[in-house]
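Can anyone check this?
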Amino acid sequence: MTIFSRALKPLTAVAFFGILLSSASCAADSTPKPVFEIQRVYLKELELKEPNSPAIFLETEQPKISVTASVESSPISADIYEVVVGIVVTGRIKNKVAFTVSAKEAGIFHIKDVPAIQMHTLHGVGCPNIIYPYLRANIADAITRAGFPPVHLAEINWETYYEQEKKRKK
């Protein structure tokens, strides 16, 4: 899937995850046009633990859910990057762990000629926005198949998450 088009109409602008492309400026000079292509999205890791089964299935309460998230990015080769979104979901009933699902969904992206200052935002916001829906579905499926009520994770504002992580790392 190509996000940036090579043929832009004059005097139009395209914005994608904070990257603004103006066709007027692209046409006026010979600077290369940014490329952002999804090569593949795949389930990289999935682990399910039920430390208190089968006794936990006799409880009538719904599990209380806690969620932690992470994002990692690494280059694979020139202009090819892997971005990995990780989620750990823990369900507790009466202070006992009913289940823990740890999953990582990854994407391979071809990213070229994007300004360095915008590359971090693309890796921390744009790519997770693409990957996360797949991860949510895989986690919901694993929890349901484990015998627990469906858990539908809320949307994550990856821009806010990215900004919080930048502040935390400083």
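Reply from J.R.: I decoded it. Confidence is low (pLDDT under 50) at residues 1-15, 17-27.
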